[in-house]
Amino acid sequence: MKSNTDSLAVNSLRVLSANMITKAKSGHPGICLGSAPILHTLFTRHLNVYAKESNWANRDRFVLSAGHGSALLYSLLHLSGFNISMEDLANFRQKGSLTPGHPEFGHTPGVEVTTGPLGQGIATSVGFAVGGKYLAERFNKKDLEIFNFKNYCLCGDGDLQEGLVMEACSLAGHLKLNNLILLYDSNDIQLDGPVEMATSDNIKLKFEAMNWSYLKVEDGNDIEAINKAIIKANESLKPTIIEIKTIIGYGASKAGTNSIHGKPLTEDELKELKNNLDYNYPDFTLPKEVKDLYLKDVYLRSEKKYLEFINNLDKYKNEYPSDYDVLKEYLEHKLYNYKNIPSYIDPISTRKVAGQVLSNMSEINKFILAGSADLASSSMIKGNDGNYGPNNYLGRNINYGVREHAMASIVNGITLMGLYGVSGGFFVFSDYMKDSIREAALMGIPSLFIFSHDTVCVGEDGPTHEPVEQLAGLRAVPNLNVVRPSDAKETTYAMLEAFKDNNYPTVITTSRQDLPVLEETNYEGFKKGGYVCYEPKTEIEYILISCGSELNLAIMAAKELEKEGKAVRVVSMPSQFIFLKQSKEYQESILPKNVVKRLAIEMGSTQPWYRFANNVLGIDSFGKSMPIKEIYEEYGFTIKHIKNLINQL
Ligand SMILES: Cc1ncc(C[n+]2csc(CCOP(=O)(O)OP(=O)(O)O)c2C)c(N)n1
Ligand SMILES: [Mg+2]
Hints:
This protein is α/β, with parallel strands linked by helices. It has 3 domains: about 5-305, Rossmann fold (3-Layer(aba) Sandwich), CATH 3.40.50.970; about 350-515, Thiamin diphosphate (ThDP)-binding fold, Pyr/PP domains (Rossmann fold), CATH 3.40.50.970; about 525-649, Rossmann fold, CATH 3.40.50.920. It contains 24 helices and 20 strands. The strands form 5 sheets. Strands 10-9-11-12-14-13 form a 6-stranded parallel β-sheet, with helices on both faces. β4 (about 190) and β5 (about 195) form a beta hairpin. The longest helix has about 30 residues, at about 290-320. Bound molecules: thiamine diphosphate (TPP) and magnesium ion. Thiamine diphosphate binds near residues 118 and 189. Magnesium ion (MG) binds near residues 157, 190 and 248.
């Protein structure tokens, strides 16, 4: 039953969040005031999050997709015992604080996903739900459940307008992910004004059409009704959206209007808020009964769940020792020793190699969940053990359908679960996935995005299908490893490196066409991002830098030039990101300052190469539809043209 303490707690959350925002002189009070009762109900009555062991594997996940409500999330985490002090709350949005403008994974304890770009939180939650179902199916026994956590996500009107969300929720409904509950803060207002100016969707019909359950709570201050809806949602066989009607900025004088969305309350408005809520505690303090309530109903209630989990692990160890060994691999995030990787001699496309290596790795590593955006047979990226779905949550191939953006966010969710998320698609369509890839880089998680058809050599399909500027764009993303392997060997190395516990995501691009397996490529060099793969017999005068399908061309050109008396070193640079992490001495040894006659060669935008070479043979226009045979000539990627360019230096 709702108690006076519940009301007091909700108002404490409201006033504390509003105070944080006013003190910071920036933030979003509207959602904090409006949705405080929703999250109070969730945290105190449902969510199992144990601050002392904040990463325990069976915790419920809560994601604030409406990341602009960060002040409310931090207040809740503080009350729930996470290591966020009242001083941290008072430092909201300040330089170096634990409480940045939007929630940042890995920065603030209890934050499960970096949110702020609307829609990302929901789509990543779908990835959590996918991972949760897989883990439950793999490990749970009839009499002993190890994984039964739920994934809750709070979203606003804006989240639901994002195309990404429609992709992700459509897939979640199809997969019957009933461990996913979306709490929709439905206040009919967004940044620019009333929601009706931009949408007239019927959310109920929309979600039901996607195979979701829909529940509605008419009064967002009615804790009992919210509680009942969450209980009901937990019984559904489908994912559930609970639309909860709230008033943006509840309690403030500008409540119900968009002017409260993102503008701090003035000191006078704060006073008014406290009056309206009949709340009389000093700023940045919390009533003792509220603290006690959270201690009892969040911390201690969750502690019980945690201890139950630990106890279950013990039982599992005794009763199912061989399964326990696998469980331990998951819990300890074991790094695998892949011994069954094929080796290659004959020319082969690197997309094929990536697919084969992935499949071999997946035989050993049971935690790889891979899938393509309806391009498994083209990108060659496919998970093992059949298709993932309601009849087989152990299947590790996820048919994402043509939903690239959601695929990338779901890969992030899977990866955040401690599993290995891998996606496949056409490189040109990486643009659709860009913000999700950026999120992975920002969070510093080892998501793996593999893209085939990496240059204009796609050929007949023409410019719509031919990436040109994508390498430049992705290489500009901080903390993202973009790898463009040149042959089967480097592709294998790229895969092996991507499955380490890196604190960055990896993009691997692969070729559509067959490429020779090069004598000159090697793992030790590859690990440095750039290395000498061909060295002339006399003192070097020129350097060719290349990667991907063009490396072989560079080596052949260097060999011919050598015959003509020109000493040309060839540097294979599959990853600029890794190369730039090496010591200055190493970089200098590969690209000595005194050798200024350099040419970089890549079938893509010239832009990324000018930091390494003054001259670049690239492609700065869109591609063209034509058979592959004519492409090399068309764009000047021939030994003859490279020789001419070198001769002009
Ligand atoms: C992808 C993206 N586009 C735009 C924004 C900027 N933005 C933040 S909140 C918001 C309004 C969202 O409306 P709603 O979800 O209804 O939030 P409310 O105003 O109810 O708090 C916008 C446009 C963003 N954070 N992410
Ligand atoms: Mg809204």
